[in-house]
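Lecture notes, continued. The same structure-token format from the folding unit now serves as the input rather than the output. Read the line below as a description of shape only.
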């Protein structure tokens, strides 16, 4: 497994690659930043350029080679997440309905277990009555949804049901 770094407005972003496929992406914790700052190679293009475009607020679909490792149900959920267009959101219930399941909490757990944040846009999934959770923390989720113009700068929602 190889790890690459990319600097974003939200902090150092790390991506793990195995066999030329992305398997994990995450924002570096403060205790990780120093080690990766000096010893981790930068993400190559075109992937770095895609992330730069995304963080400039340009609509983008990450058409990257991915490798999902999880249960069959998790993988089904993650494949649904990839289909959510830039600047749009779905609820856990809507994803469950698309998959033909009433197990909305199971959908929520699968969304929360997404190993490829941003690239597989789990931040675009909302609870029926608000933002829901986010593995990277709600401030980052709010920032990403603001970047995609789902939220306004003051946090007001552009989507029905969003607080």
């Amino acid at each position: 497994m190889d790890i690459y770094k990319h600097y974003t407005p939200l902090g150092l972003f790390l991506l793990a690659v195995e066999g030329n496929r992305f398997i994990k992406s995450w924002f570096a914790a403060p205790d990780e930043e120093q080690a990766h700052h000096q010893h981790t190679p930068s993400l190559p293009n075109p992937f770095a350029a895609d992330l730069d475009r995304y963080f400039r607020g340009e609509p983008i679909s990450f058409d990257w080679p991915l490798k999902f490792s999880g249960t069959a149900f998790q993988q089904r959920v993650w494949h649904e997440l990839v289909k959510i267009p830039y600047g749009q959101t779905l609820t856990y219930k809507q994803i469950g309905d698309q998959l033909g399941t009433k197990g909305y909490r199971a959908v929520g757990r699968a969304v929360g277990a997404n190993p490829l944040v941003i690239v597989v846009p789990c931040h675009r999934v909302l609870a029926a009555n608000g933002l829901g959770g986010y593995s990277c923390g709600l401030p980052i989720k709010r920032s990403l949804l603001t970047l995609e113009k789902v939220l306004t700068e003051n946090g007001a929602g552009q989507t029905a049901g969003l607080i």
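Point for the exam: DSSP finds six helices and five strands in the chain.
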